[in-house]
Specification:
Residues 24-157 form the NusB/RsmB/TIM44 domain. InterPro entries: NusB-like_sf, NusB_fam, NusB_RsmB_TIM44. By secondary structure, this protein is mostly helical. The chain is 61% helix and 2% strand. It has one domain (20-159): NusB-like (N-utilizing Substance Protein B Homolog, Chain A), CATH 1.10.940.10. It has 6 helices and 2 strands, in the order H-H-E-E-H-H-H-H. Helix 1 crosses helix 3 and helix 4 (104-119) packs antiparallel against helix 5 (125-139). The longest helix has 25 residues, at 68-92.
């Protein structure tokens, strides 16, 4: 599914999030990736991002301002609910792949998207799916954005029976 060259923890230079929530989603995925790979705790990562990354400049690259409350909600929500989210995400995968075999960035994207679908009922399904597909495109050139779209579409049917997910 995704045993290609792993992406870096940084999005492609040409990626620009369109809004503060989009920037918060991108930062949340990066933070979740960093916690997954490096084992850092949620408080430490959130503090680092809020102090240095959200809207800041790193290595000459200006980060877009992000909604800090949205960033915190996604990161802490995923961490607090990961045990419940992972089996649901696994059920959305079509192949017989455990989550641990997925690329860490892809795992972070799916966890963040699944958390939003299950907890941010005021945000339309199409917005959530589109935003996380865009985040996937920031990191991957291959099939991963399609995987994100397909899995989040399946999860939306489970979490949001009242709303139709966006079709690509």
């Amino acid at each position: 599914m995704t045993e290609q060259t792993p992406p870096s923890a940084e999005p492609k230079p040409e990626f620009k999030s369109a809004n503060q929530r989009g920037a918060a989603r991108l930062a949340a995925v990066q933070a979740l990736y960093q916690m997954d790979i490096g084992g850092a705790g949620v408080l430490e990562i959130v503090a680092e991002y809020e102090a240095h990354r959200l809207g800041g400049e790193i290595d000459g690259e200006q980060y877009r301002p992000a909604d800090p409350a949205w960033f915190r909600a996604v990161v802490s929500g995923v961490v607090e609910n990961q045990r419940a989210l992972d089996p649901v995400i696994r059920s959305g995968l079509t192949e017989d792949w455990p989550l641990s075999r997925l690329d860490a960035t892809l795992r972070a994207i799916l966890r963040a998207g699944a958390w939003e679908l299950s907890n941010k009922k005021d945000v339309p399904v199409a917005v959530i799916v589109t935003e996380y597909v865009d985040v996937a495109r920031a990191f991957f050139d291959g099939e991963e954005p399609k995987i994100v779209n397909a899995v989040l579409d399946r999860l939306a049917r489970k979490y949001r029976e009242d709303q139709k997910p966006k079709k690509d």
